[in-house]
Specification:
Layout lengths: L1 E6 L5 E8 L5 E9 L2 E10 L7 H17 L3
Antiparallel strand pairs: 1-2, 2-3, 3-4
Keywords: Receptor
Protein name: TonB-dependent receptor
């Protein structure tokens, strides 16, 4: 399990965690804030992570968090 935090391209900060599921999948959950106020929560799954180094897994999770938040309809 790992922790992740960052800022999305549209100005929201997030904090979350991720953990291996099975068959190379990584499940993640993130809480978003805007100017310190709660803005929402999302969860997702990144596939194809079997045998991937931890740094690359964290980067893939961050990319998925960004796209899930900014591309949400």
């Amino acid at each position: 399990m790992g922790n992740v935090s960052g800022k999305t391209s549209n100005g929201f900060t997030y904090e979350g965690d991720y953990q291996p599921a099975s068959a190379g999948r990584i499940n993640w959950t993130a809480t978003f804030r805007h100017k310190g106020d709660y803005a929402g929560m999302r969860h997702g799954c990144v596939h194809g992570m079997l045998g991937v180094p931890p740094e690359a897994v964290e980067e893939a999770v961050k990319v998925d968090i960004e796209s899930t938040w900014t591309d949400a309809a």
